[in-house]
Write a structure and sequence with these properties.
Layout lengths: L2 E9 L42 E10 L2 E7 L3 E6 L6 E3 L3 E2 L2 E2 L5 H5 L4 E2 L4 E3 L6 E5 L5 E5 L2 E2 L21 E3 L27 H5 L7
Parallel strand pairs: 3-9
Antiparallel strand pairs: 1-2, 3-4, 5-13, 6-7, 8-11, 10-11, 11-12
Length: about 210
């Protein structure tokens, strides 16, 4: 079962301390004149307390509750999420150390598999499953230290239309290796990305070939 969650990042606001200047009575002389005998300076104002950090909502994300390693017809060893969608790895990521290089438009085509803990696993060795923290603070699942993704071109569970896309995307095995079965002829291109929510999302990571 896929759960929705809201990942909250604490953004510590850089609070400046506002200090009011020491006040003087209205009758305090200026320049070289002698002050009045009964003139009394007011005490300096106490520094104001810095404002408390305000929680910032990062985004609403889909969290993956489980991972399943299994053998399927023709393709062989694959990993699916809890809804049966086949997962992929990206050659432009790295495993040593685990690093994700798919963001912005790339991540809209290849949604990262996210978790807020440890997903339930079946058919995968526990020591093969981990996480890597993305730039937005979300935690992406890794298999064999490789970050894993879904593909929006797969419209129903069990499809693997992302196999070989761009020459860099491949079905991932339960060990984290590339499944090189059923490679397409030529180098298929990715489907068109969905509309960006804003211009910044469209530009981030858009130079990658995916």
């Amino acid at each position: 079962m896929k759960r929705s969650g809201i990942v909250i990042a604490s953004a510590a606001l850089a609070a400046t301390t506002a200090c009011a200047p020491a006040g003087t009575t209205p009758n305090t002389p200026v320049g070289n004149a002698e002050p009045a005998a009964n003139a009394v300076s007011e005490p300096a104002a106490e520094p104001s307390a810095p404002p408390a950090p305000t929680p910032v909502e990062v985004a609403e994300v889909d969290l993956t509750a489980g991972l399943v390693g299994k053998r399927v017809s023709r393709m062989g060893q694959v990993v699916t999420d809890d809804k049966g969608f086949v997962l992929y790895r990206f050659d432009r990521d790295s495993a040593k150390p685990p690093t994700t290089n798919c963001a912005g438009e790339c991540a809209r085509l290849w949604p990262p598999v996210l978790t807020n803990g440890t997903p339930d696993i079946t058919g995968i060795a526990a020591d093969k499953v981990g996480t890597v923290t993305r730039e937005d603070g979300t935690r992406q699942v890794t298999i064999g230290d490789w970050p894993v993704y879904r593909y929006i071109g797969d419209k129903k569970p069990g499809q693997w239309k992302g196999q070989g896309v761009g020459g860099t995307w491949f079905v991932v095995t339960p060990a984290g290796t590339k499944n090189l079965s059923c490679l397409p002829t030529g180098t298929p291109k990715a489907v068109a990305p969905p509309p960006a929510k804003d211009d910044a999302a469209a530009e981030e990571g858009g130079r990658l070939s995916y």
